[in-house]
Write a structure and sequence with these properties.
The protein is α+β, with helices and mostly antiparallel strands. The protein folds into two domains: 3-56 and 213-220, no CATH class; 61-210, Aminopeptidase, CATH 3.40.630. It has helices at 6-12, 30-33, 83-93, 98-101, 107-122, 167-179, 194-202, and strands at 3-4, 16-21, 38-43, 53-63, 73-75, 127-134, 137-147, 150-158, 184-190, 206-217. It has a ten-stranded mixed β-sheet, sandwiched between helices. A hairpin with a 2-residue loop joins strand 6 and strand 7 (137-147). The radius of gyration is 18 Å and the shape is globular. It starts with a strand and ends with a strand. The mean pLDDT is 96.
Length: 221
């Protein structure tokens, strides 16, 4: 059954739905698909479809361990840190996102989405945004949210010039420091983002699941 996504539909000004398909499920009819402008199709196995595959999503996880809080990492403060620099990092974090790849959305809609995402992280009680700063320049950031005994990395990025210099590791260490021992920390990324996958493995994460994500766009068929 295709679920109507109210937030996505309002934000993108199109009727958008989501289908979570498991082997053996009944496939929706063409009429059901055509009731939507766009449908996200999630499956834990590859499907033989005419619809484009826009993402193979890995979800990584690890158990947190208490660590010292890194000296160059700070809780984002709008009065002390440059929001424009943060925004550019946020766009960088989505460079391999399906919302950037799919022409249904376009570059501006992708940026609007990621800007809304970081703004929500900055203004939600159970979320935190941490930045790595040197000489008033933000070299990286990480946005997390907590739910019960779990935590999720929503967004993370390091500027190209600072990659490979330990900035990302220190951001993850800062998250460990905040969360303390024995919380489960999850982070999604794209299989095509080999650099990110390698980074998470070096940080002690393991793969918990894998999903194939297809997009059905009515005007394409």
């Amino acid at each position: 059954m295709i679920k109507y996504l109210a937030w996505d539909s309002d934000f993108f000004d199109n009727k958008i739905g989501k289908l979570i398909y498991r082997e053996g499920d009944e496939w929706p009819t063409e009429q059901e698909f055509r009731a939507f402008d766009l449908v996200y199709i999630f499956s834990n196995t590859a499907l033989d479809l005419n619809y484009p595959l826009y993402d193979i999503k890995f979800t990584f996880y690890k158990e947190t361990q208490s660590k010292l809080f890194p000296a160059s990492v700070y809780l984002y403060d709008n009065e002390k840190h440059d929001y424009i620099q943060l925004q550019e990092l946020v766009f960088l974090s989505g460079h391999d996102s399906r919302f950037r790849k799919d022409p249904f959305f376009g570059e501006q809609a992708f940026k609007n989405l990621y800007k809304a995402w970081i703004d929500k992280s900055l203004n939600t009680v159970n979320s935190k945004v941490l930045v790595y700063e040197e000489e008033s320049q933000l070299l990286g950031f990480i946005a997390i949210k907590e739910e019960n005994n779990k935590a999720f990395i929503d967004l993370i990025a390091v500027i190209p010039e600072a990659q490979g210099k330990g900035v990302g590791h220190q951001l993850v260490d800062a998250v460990d420091s905040i969360l303390g021992d024995s919380k489960m920390l999850y982070v999604p990324t794209q299989q095509t983002n080999a650099q990110a996958c390698h980074f998470y493995e070096k940080c002690g994460f393991k793969i918990s699941d894998k999903h194939y994500i297809y997009h059905y766009a009515k005007d394409s068929f």
